[in-house]
Amino acid sequence: xxxxxxxxxxxxxxxxxxxxxxxxxxxxxxxxxxxxxxxxxxxxxxxxxxxxxxxxxxxxxxxxxxxxxxxxxxxxxxxxxxxxxxxxxxxxxxxxxxxxxxxxxxxxxxxxxxxxxxxxxxxxxxxxxxxxxxxxxxxxxxxxxxxxxxxxxxxxxxxxxxxxxxxxxxxxxxxxxxxxxxxxxxxxxxxxxxxxxxxxxxxxxxxxxxxxxxxxxxxxxxxxxxxxxxxxxxxxxxxxxxxxxxxxxxxxxxxxxxxxxxxxxxxxxxxxxxxxxxxxxxxxxxxxxxxxxxxxxxxxxxxxxxxxxxxxxxxxxxxxxxxxxxxxxxxxxxxxxxxxxxxxxxxxxxxxxxxxxxxxxxxxxxxxxxxxx
Length: 373
Description:
Layout: H1 6-13, E1 22-24, E2 27-31, E3 43-45, E4 51-57, E5 71-74, E6 78-83, E7 86-91, E8 96-100, E9 113-119, E10 124-129, E11 134-139, E12 144-149, E13 156-162, E14 165-170, E15 179-183, E16 188-193, E17 208-213, E18 216-221, E19 224-230, E20 235-242, H2 250-253, E21 270-277, E22 281-291, E23 294-304, E24 309-311, E25 315-317, E26 333-334, E27 340-345, H3 347-350, E28 366-372
Parallel strand pairs: 2-20, 3-25
Antiparallel strand pairs: 1-2, 4-28, 5-6, 6-7, 7-8, 9-10, 10-11, 11-12, 13-14, 14-15, 15-16, 17-18, 18-19, 19-20, 21-22, 22-23, 23-24, 26-27, 27-28
């Protein structure tokens, strides 16, 4: 495994100007290390980003009533989503087709489908059963294909499939995350990266986020400001997202006997919910523990690669059709199919608006597809 020295990187970052994308030793660096950099009212028209928006209402039937979408994916012809411990399959017009698998403890069932990924080449859907501690594989038509156990690691909660191998990641408070590679055909698990410390009595904050870009796989871990590119047998630094003192410390997350933190934060702290990039933009969705009297206020950072400009927060707005806007830190989702981002909107937010006259308030959610032209 190749990594840069943590102390060397930290020393470099201390000389970088806030809010400006920089290049240090060939690495792009985005800096968001102080709450004063955030402008909550900053607006950018969707037209400036050449973003077009399409609405896909998910069909509401007696068989398919969706309370909340916990995970969204897509393949070339289908949408796949996890809702209320069920996996739903829709076509690209939003027509409900079928459920995939079923909840239960049987060999072909799952207890908790936490993360899913469709693999177009195999016409197969991989389903991580978090509490069942296994991976189930189903054909796109719903047939059960196979199942295999997850590696013996308690906190494995995320994965990405690439070229016949599964890359497993964990949640844990450490500078480096766990990263395991499972060769499906050989049935062998290799450790590419191992955490540097065990957790104590701490609240979890160490999330690891992954994304694909140009057939490369990337990962970012909360306690490490480096975005890594995952290679066959190693990881290597790709670019940096520096958060400085906005990052929680281990002592601030550790509870003592009276359930108070071992060390109280001396300012706002950042919690990241997702980080990824497309060919044109980089996105970071996060919240601040405190911001001008508000708690856990959500924001969206945006890096425009074409203009080489970094926005610590921006609202993407459409004046003529406000329902297209991405405001107040609302999350966009990147799927396995490149070229589109998605937002999930509840029917009661759109019912009765122009273009949604037939939508009822208690209908299934609507997918908003954002396409960069």
